[in-house]
Amino acid sequence: MRGHSKEEMITAFRAILRSVKRQGMEDLLGWLETTDFYTAPASAKYHGAHECGLLEHSLGVYENLLKRAVGYDLDSIAIVGLLHDVCKADFYTKQTKNQKDANGKWQQVECWGYANQFPAGHGEKSVMLIMRYIWLTDEEIMAINWHMGGFDARARTDGHSLSDAWAKYPLAVMVHLADMEDTWLARKGGQAE
Q: What is the pTM of this model?
């Protein structure tokens, strides 16, 4: 939904999740309202490192997943695509840093920093937060939990779990590919816009 207004993206995001027939979805949406999910960046300095970047990225992954996960339950696609990075809600803060300008003079510039209030990892943190409100299938859990693939530090210490999850749950591979497509292809190689 690149090029759409913040309001249009929020409306689309909510409408898609409201179409999911899963008990607790309204509570989850209510919780998101108490966070900065709709205005947060997707990263501190790479893809979506701007206001509403997380919302834009989530919608992008959902759209990519719709194309990849043909034949999958639309509720699962919506949950996994839109909520895989819910761990980033209330995670970034605006900060300042010193940086040289074009003339070599130091100046203070605004940037994103970290303020991790619940340091429970990445994919696994998203699963924990989501499951406070709605039930997830095993495949949805694995897809969200392992969406970072080899970029997840756990995969470097326990590659068997990642391989086993991807072998058993194809949706986990598809969300990883949809995430990488949005991050690296649609967003200029992961660089900040």
A: 0.88
